[in-house]
Amino acid sequence: MRGLITTVAVILVIGGLFFLSQSLFTVDETQQAIILQFGDPVATIQEPGLAFKLPFIQNVITFDKRVLSSDAPPQEYLTSDKKRLVVDHVTRWRISDPLAFFKAVRTEAGARARLDDIIFSELRREAGDGRVSGCDFHAARGHRRAGGGLGAGQGCRVWHHRA
């Protein structure tokens, strides 16, 4: 009888530890998390630390809080004065609202694809309007940077490596 009680106690302790390990998770200081219950978001966690979820019912998706970047391959545009312009852009972005981000694009790969589409179409529009013709190139630390020319408050920030 005593052996049966010991066995049941050991099984309960192991089961409790397993349940606890499935319930607790940590959010790193460089991350933010969304708790999903059957695929629907129920909570967002933006502070680092230990958090709790219901095991087997809820799962956690984490997103980076840091500045992310997207480096698309160079694209060629035709300006309004029929000159070819090759632009190699780098986009820097941050996820400020993880719930809105999850509802809109779900993943960082989806966000990168969507950002690239938006940026390519805006660059194509700017090149077609002839607004990049005023870019002046100057040397800065072994690179050339295109300055002004896109209009008030905007900058033609295209970096070209010197060969």
Instruction: Determine Rg (CA atoms, Å).
Output: 26 Å
The oligomeric status of these chains comes to single chain
- Helicity level, as a percent range? 25-40%
Number of domains: 2
The overall pLDDT, averaged over residues, is: 81
Poorly predicted spans: 136-163
First-last Cα distance: 84 Å
Number of strands: 12
How would you spell out the order of helices and strands? Answer: HEEEEEEEEEHHEEE
Q: Structural class of the secondary structure composition?
A: alpha+beta
Beta fraction:
25-35%
**Gross geometry:** rod-shaped
Largest sheet properties = 3 strands, antiparallel
Spatial order of strands in the largest sheet: 3-2-5
Helix count equals 3
Walkthrough of the structure:
The structure is a single chain. The chain has 163 residues and is an alpha+beta fold. The chain is 31% helix and 34% strand. The chain is built from three helices and twelve strands, in the order H-E-E-E-E-E-E-E-E-E-H-H-E-E-E. A three-stranded antiparallel sheet has the order 3-2-5, with helices on one face. A three-stranded antiparallel sheet has the order 10-11-12, with no helix packed on it. It is rod-shaped, with a radius of gyration of 26 Å. The protein starts with a helix and ends with a strand. The relative contact order is 0.11.
